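My current task is to audit a protein record that another person submitted. My question to you is simply how this chain folds and whether the tokens agree. This is what I was given:
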Amino acid sequence: MRQYTIKDIARELGVSPSTVSRALSGHPGISARTRSRVQELARLHNYQPNLLAKSLQQKHSSTIGVIVPEIRHDFFAATISGIEEVAYTAGYAIMVCQSHETLDRETTNIAALLGQRIAGLLLSVSCRTHDARHLAPVLRSRTPLVVFDRVPEGFAGSTVTTDDEQGACDITALLLQKGYRRIAHIGGPPHLAISRRRYAGYTKALAAAGIPQFSGYHIQGGFDEEDGRRGAMQLFDLAQPPDAIMAVTDPVALGVYSAARQRGLRIPQDIAVTGFSGNPVGELITPRLTTVYQPAFEMGRRAAGLLLEQIRGTAAQSTATVSLPTRVVVRESA
């Protein structure tokens, strides 16, 4: 069966192939009506862009590089889906790499992707990435770059994050409303802005309620289940253990569940637990996890959109900061 081409779309719509090509790449000079008609026909006939021909034409790859800490986390899987939707519609493929939460792997991935002459890079840094120095090769090569969710210290480029401080403040306020007073926070690495913002939201809610911060109630660690389990054990061993734990991520909250079971503690009767991210597994565990929902898919879409603006040279400014709203999802764990 012959593959549907740009020329076929142009013939059906009575426009030039160059108009179709610009419409598929989202060129601002093409009207919204024409773009819509072109994209509808492309979907109808399952049009597949010839990425090799495009890359030879443009003297760079039609591939967007994506680096995330770990794909196994539902949050990053959802952001990748959002990225792919936007990239594919614009005629780009994506190449996904995992840093596995290490700076060395992240740096290696960056070098490999630059070697492939990628059109642009989307990055969420590892928990062991302390600053933006390793991004110097990306900046020197003038490769378009957008960092999402986890932003390294000192990065001055385009970013897409969620309102982490407000989300943390809202869920801590929920715990206070429910009568909890000894609220601990198992946070992330202190060198990452995402950790500091969530800790700031936690302390802001406590201060607004006139609740003092108890000594030893702030544990700094990583973003995974083992970090949550280890942090919870530390909190349970205090002379005055907390009555609630606000975890920096849902995986950390799952680690708290594991520690509570190990100690014979009931959730929420003995210890309330909340997470952050809106991982679908929170609906499946018992009791279901109260959490802060992050719009991961939309984050991926917005990050890809900003990157495409840089690639096309249509960005209004060299840097853009997008902060997406969060919302508290109340279930049974608190």
Observations:
- Residues 296-312 form the longest helix (17 residues).
